[in-house]
Design goal:
alpha+beta, BirA Bifunctional Protein, domain 2, Rossmann fold, 7-stranded mixed sheet, 18 helices, binds glycyl-adenosine-5'-phosphate
Length: 513
């Protein structure tokens, strides 16, 4: 655990030191769980968004984009169920006065049991070596089976209690498991209460006539209320999707873990409208497609897993998370939800407008069912950033810090470095920058010895360093150094563009899907 904490601290400080993420309003001591993206962060964030948008909208002829407003008519949130049901169960510790999400306390308890399972597996793996069969061990080892049964029993009881709004039982579970305040160890808990996560605001200049509004807690509702507009104007035929990226706001009870859980964050969501009765197939299909998108970035298959929901949101008949191995363990990165006809049905009811699709093949109208894929852009940023940050031991007994971002997402694709600041080398380097910047983000760097500049670019995540030296004057060649292998090759200046393009081209990456 201490090792995980250390790694996470390194991620946070590296993000600040290298211009990726700053705390919001830092000069006023910051604002809790609100962050700003700095000069490199904004590029990485844009590239992730672009990678998602291309895979979703550009490459699917039956998915189109949308950019709906953050403010929506307040009835939207009555219809969607957010006013009545977008709650988290909170619990206060009477001694420490700290507030927690009751379900997260229980989930963290289960995560500790899971750590014990992993320890048993690691021990057995060591003992049996190549002969070790992990699957068989997990299903037959009495200790592991016992731990897993315990986790299942706890989570299923919590799921049922939350579904039935039996908050007394959630508290009873916390007490029975003897869960203590993680900060102080106190077990002196209040009752569990529901807390609505939406931020309210007002529209209008006068207090008497101002309208109560909410900042949207998800982008999805902007898609639902525009369903018919898009379907008609785009002459879309079911099955089809509408995708959107944008800010969402939640007054999280406990917002911690850096940009993992924020109060203002960005979502990338897609609602896929389908014929009722086909939801099971499409749900499975989208689970597969989304996992492939993640795997195309090459961040390690072992770092992803599905988690099927026990407790379903008020709108879903099936739901799963794609979990990622963050520095603090496996946590939700993306949700795939089978939302039935709940949202369109509710908006029909509350607006008194028909939100139906006429199916020419079946000669009938119906309210479409919906499969939703929903991923937090900030969470994806954290997944990419934390997975990429490595401390490497080198042959000469030194270490280097390198941010091995997938090249397609890196903020700058190349740094152009004159070996020395004289003999005309800076002029040639600047000419290369001026030429390449039409195709890629590139930076010019002439400060410090070249070795230090390489290290700086490694830590910044720049995939290539191009060095202009005295040989360049003779034969128009430069060295190109690869961030991950540190290998250097001499190439002609005119070859540089294609070498970079091959490694950063979205097509090359997305074709792996
Ligand atoms: N429209 C469905 C929906 O909003 P969700 O599971 O509540 O579903 C979807 O959120 C995704 O949004 C999550 O998987 C996560 O990546 C991201 N997300 C949710 N709350 C967040 C928060 N407070 N901070 C950062 N990302 C968040």
């Amino acid at each position: 655990m201490a090792k995980q904490d250390d790694q996470f601290k390194k991620v946070i400080s590296h993000a600040k030191e290298y211009g990726y993420v700053f705390q919001s309003s830092e000069i006023y001591d910051g604002l809790s769980a609100v962050y700003d993206y700095a000069q490199n962060g904004v590029e990485l964030k844009n590239n992730i968004r672009d990678y998602w948008w291309k895979a979703m909208v550009q490459l699917n002829d039956n998915i189109v984009g949308l950019d709906a407003a953050i403010f929506m008519h307040p009835t939207t949130w009555k219809a969607s169920g957010h006013i009545d049901a977008f709650n988290d169960p909170l619990i206060d510790n009477k001694d420490s006065k700290k507030r927690y999400r009751a379900d997260v306390l229980i989930e963290d308890y289960c995560a500790k049991i899971e750590t014990k399972i992993n320890k048993e597996i690691a021990k057995a793996e060591k003992r049996f070596g190549d002969a070790f069969n992990k699957e068989e061990f997990i299903s037959t080892n009495p200790r592991v089976v016992g731990y897993q049964e315990k986790i299942n029993t706890i989570l299923s009881r919590m799921g049922k209690s939350l579904e039935n709004e039996d908050l007394a039982d959630v508290k009873a579970l916390i007490e029975e498991l003897e869960i203590a305040d993680p900060l102080t160890g106190s077990r002196n808990w209040t009752d569990v209460k529901q807390f609505n996560l939406m931020f309210g605001t007002k529209l209008g200049a006068s207090i008497d006539t101002a309208m109560d509004l909410y900042l949207r807690p998800e982008t999805a509702q902007g898609i639902f209320v525009n369903f018919l507009n898009v379907q008609k104007t785009g002459r879309m035929k079911i099955p089809f999707g509408i995708a959107q990226t944008g800010k969402a706001f939640r007054n999280e009870i406990v917002a911690r873990q850096f940009i993992f859980r924020m109060r203002e964050f960005e979502q990338m969501e897609m609602q896929f409208f389908i014929k009722p009765g086909t939801q099971k197939e499409w749900y499975e299909q989208w689970k597969k497609t989304r996992l492939k998108w993640h795997l195309s970035l090459g961040m390690g298959e072992e770092n992803y897993r599905f988690h099927d929901h026990e407790k379903l949101a008020h709108y879903a008949d099936a739901a799963a998370d794609i979990e990622f191995k963050f520095p603090f363990g496996f946590k939700e990165l993306e949700g795939i939800h089978s939302r039935t006809d709940f949202d369109l049905g509710q908006h029909e009811k509350f607006s008194n407008k028909k939100l139906q699709y006429f199916d020419h093949e079946d000669n009938q109208s119906y309210v479409p069912y919906v499969i939703e894929t929903s991923i937090g852009l900030d969470r994806m940023f954290l997944a990419v950033f934390s997975n990429s940050l490595v401390e490497e031991e080198l042959d000469n007994n030194t270490t280097r810090t390198v941010l091995k971002l997938p090249a397609v997402l890196a903020p700058n694709k190349a740094a152009i470095l004159p070996l020395v600041k004289k003999d005309g080398l800076p002029d040639i380097a600047k000419k290369i920058v001026d030429d390449l910047k039409w195709d890629f983000n590139v930076v010019y760097d002439e400060k410090d010895a070249v070795g230090r500049r390489y290290r700086r670019q490694d830590a910044n995540g720049t995939p290539f360093c191009i060095t202009v030296d005295h040989d360049t004057l003779e034969n128009n060649t430069v060295t190109i150094r690869h961030r991950d292998t540190m290998e250097q090759k001499r190439v002609k200046i005119e070859e540089v563009r294609n070498i970079i393009k091959k490694e950063v081209d979205v097509k090359e990456w997305l074709q792996k899907m």
